[in-house]
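Students often ask why we bother predicting the structure of a whole assembly rather than each chain alone. The short answer is interfaces. A chain on its own may look different once its partners are present, and contacts between molecules only exist in the joint model. In this exercise we take two input lines together and write out one structure for the complete complex. Read the inputs first and try to guess which parts will touch.
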Amino acid sequence: MPSVITSTATLPPKSARAGSAKTSPVRDLLALTERPDVISFAGGLPAPELFDLDGIRDAYAAALSTPAVLQYSTSEGNARLREIVAAQYTAEGLPTAAEDLLVTTGSQQGLGLFATTLLDPGDVVLVEEPCYLAALQTFALAGSRVIGIPSSDGALDLDALDAAAAAHAPKFFYTVPTFQNPTGRTHDLESRERIAASAMRYGYRIVEDEPYRQLRYSGDALPSLAHFAPDHVLSLGTFSKVIAPGLRIGWVRTTPDIRPAVTIAKQAADLHTSTIDQAAAAEYLASGRAASALSRIRAEYAARRDAMLSALPSALPDGSTWNTPDGGMFVWARLADGWNATTALGEALAHDVAFVPGAPFYAGAPDERTLRLSFTTYAPERILVGMSRLGAAFQTDR
Amino acid sequence: MPSVITSTATLPPKSARAGSAKTSPVRDLLALTERPDVISFAGGLPAPELFDLDGIRDAYAAALSTPAVLQYSTSEGNARLREIVAAQYTAEGLPTAAEDLLVTTGSQQGLGLFATTLLDPGDVVLVEEPCYLAALQTFALAGSRVIGIPSSDGALDLDALDAAAAAHAPKFFYTVPTFQNPTGRTHDLESRERIAASAMRYGYRIVEDEPYRQLRYSGDALPSLAHFAPDHVLSLGTFSKVIAPGLRIGWVRTTPDIRPAVTIAKQAADLHTSTIDQAAAAEYLASGRAASALSRIRAEYAARRDAMLSALPSALPDGSTWNTPDGGMFVWARLADGWNATTALGEALAHDVAFVPGAPFYAGAPDERTLRLSFTTYAPERILVGMSRLGAAFQTDR
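Now the answer. The structure tokens for the assembled complex follow.
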């Protein structure tokens, strides 16, 4: 036996990848948005009063009529639930079988499963600039090198995508094609065709994240990228925006070549998603109540979007710009020359209103004039009060 | 724009770490155990008829009385649930605050969070030989180098632990100290003190996985390793064995130095565990019904263990050995000289009975004579029928 060392040795350090996942510098500021008197357009929260609490409670009671829902289940997930999701894809023009799908604990987990399956430290991932924040965190924890693809005039720079693909041999391009977080931007049909063609030409995969797809308030539905490049596209979906986020039920749609590896990654991640939540989600979707709840949610969110858009001209400084999303939860704005969104947030909080500065969403150099406004949390009248406060904040700060 | 390449480029390969997670060679054999006529001692499944279905259904109904349970929640988890778990630790002699705990989607996820927080590719992890299979999978996916610490006479070889720690500077030692999976073995008080002292001396952490702690049928409770080395020990717990596994609710008990990194890893893993399942678990525990259900489960599992132990002498070949666990779900046996457990499984399946060969549980060279028998799934009479079939199989194979 080795000789006794009396002093305690130092604890080993954390992993390098844990150190590379940064906490956001605006997190402290955003903690202030939780004051009850603040009208916060910062969070990406669905409206709880629109949840179908009664329908969901009935679905849980039905699911909990058999002890089988209390037992361990398969990593792939509830067969009935996967058949319902597969039928939705097929009805929307993308033929899908239950075997193509694996149920995840929210679509955030799906992102992690693809990272585990595809990324080794140092591998390159292409992202849209700006990009969904938690995706950047996942790719950082995988030790990957993230390269942002810029936009011009609100559309992805497709030549920059081709050039980055040629230069860096990426493992995949991560995109939220419809009503993106944070920008609300949707890739049009031609962009989708060209992104898919680029993946096929340069031999990289596409991870298509579609949390907002079913929250469309205007315009026509667009095909999945998988329609144009079926072997190259992996998709992520979720019920967080159409049933409720508290269930934490999402799914991945995989290509056959990586399916066994994704299943092993899922086993290692949490064995399987809650048997009870999965069975309740299947009950709820089969009951027909989900479809009517979604119609109600869409109509109400459309009114909220319109209320915010109507108030923006008087709320933001002259010379600011913003987009008009056809769906989702977010409006993306760019303040007039000379403004800084992080500085402006301080003044906004003094007026009991909040938004998220755009800077943390950038993988590379941020545009400090940008900000994200969520329009789903409050009824239209309350949105107008908040926008009026925002106008007052920008007046004060001038 | 680059010139068009007409042929489709090859898809990029999977990650090296995904390739290193092996599927088990006995998996095909075990698929046969799902035939309804097979009495399977192979799975580690709790007995569904002992679940408190009514109590759990009532808890979900109570939790689903407010829309707040349908909303996103914090990554740390339900405050009430964490307070209940903290009070349990404190009552058992290990002072614990709610802030020390983070709720996970089963304790399997906790293992992944510690891997993300602590392991870079190439880092060394020490494990008990044999070891819980899904832990080996998690460490393989983290790209770590796993070194098994052998046992002698059913107890961990503590000199080998010290020697491996001195030679390899491990990040942590992973242990299931109480009623281990697969062996049912429990580290006694002296072993616990020495394992803790080794971690302090050589400066590595201990990840203590305690899924079976509350399933004790004989003997006295033993202190957590954290009692002896509070700065070095990270613990994993779960309700899978005491409420039901379908909820997928576990927790990690962390030291303050890694808590922010674990929280970020949890955000990246799945944002948070199901708000509904967490609230229902807290309701159920607070109702007092969990304690009486656990008493019933313990009494019944003790009877099942005793039934299996009583039948083992006539079931296994002469010269075989096995242990007498004080709790948990498993008996570990070693067949007499000349036998091979994987070969024997084929004959057992021909007699409609199954077990798991021990070989897949080894990180290094396996002991091909070992096997694991789970005693929790069936009532005592059915266990005796299965053991009688096992005896017939070994007679045939002789």
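Check your guess against this: The CA atoms of residues 209 and 236 of chain A lie 5 Å apart.
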